[in-house]
Design a protein that fits this description.
The chain is of the alpha/beta class. 29% of the residues lie in helices and 26% in strands. Helix 1 crosses helix 2 (31-41).
């Protein structure tokens, strides 16, 4: 596990993405996530990868620009294709040309009950999703179903220790919690019960808040899993 410690880490990640001419996240702190995702997924650029809770597609856009070939995103709210993307898709159908990047596939749906085939994906990303009242048992069960044995998963969420009370709070119109150490340990245990083994189970100490929202000061925690079995 990794905990975002300070703004220097955000800056380093942002510069690393810029040096590779990759798009940044609108929330600057999440460039820390994007850089970790790229490094984790690099060996899988030809393999199918799913973004669970793809939101505004920042992760998909970054991976596509980096040359990944088989990307799928699923979210309850799928952004409409812009007029430019539509024009580009139409042009590519009639006159394929190097430099027109293949589009990723977007699916509108629930990450707890996806339409995907069993054991289809080699990797999954879930960035800033599980803090919105996601049922973790169902999440890991469905993720285990659609991922192949040995698949990798990157998951990140809001974090602070000691616990911050967010009772009744919402973020983006959705319920919102900030995980503490006990909550992360519970999440990891549920993942383990569905075959997801943490690469590093140690939870680092927090250094300083890097995120400020809704009157709360906190940071991010990221974790990477390997699926050791399929259910």
């Amino acid at each position: 596990m990794k905990v975002l410690g300070d703004w220097d880490e955000v800056g380093t990640a942002t510069i690393s993405l810029q040096q590779r001419d990759l798009p940044l996240h609108k929330d600057f702190q999440k460039n820390w996530d994007l850089w970790q995702i790229l490094q984790l997924m690099e060996p899988l650029r030809e393999r199918p990868i799913v973004d669970l809770g793809s939101g505004e597609n920042y992760t998909l856009n970054m991976l596509r620009r980096a040359g990944f070939k088989a990307l799928v995103g699923i979210d309850m709210r799928v952004p409409r294709e812009s007029w430019f993307d539509g024009l580009r898709s139409t042009y590519r159908r009639y006159r394929p040309r190097k430099g027109l990047l293949p589009r990723y596939r977007l699916v509108q749906g629930n990450i707890l009950n996806t339409p995907f085939d069993q054991s289809f994906f080699d990797a999954a990303v879930c960035l800033s999703v599980v803090e919105h009242n996601v049922n973790l048992e169902q999440f890991f069960a469905e993720s285990s179903r659609i991922l192949r044995k040995g698949a990798r998963m990157y998951l990140s969420t809001d974090y602070w220790e000691p616990k911050i009370n967010t009772t009744g709070a919402t973020f983006g119109g959705m319920p919102w919690k900030i995980f503490d150490k006990t909550g992360v340990e519970t999440l990891a245990a549920i993942g383990r019960s569905h075959g997801f083994k943490l690469d590093d189970p140690t939870i680092p100490d927090v250094k300083m808040p890097v995120v400020y929202a809704k009157g709360k000061h906190y940071t991010f925690i990221s974790m990477t899993f390997t699926l050791s079995k399929s259910t």
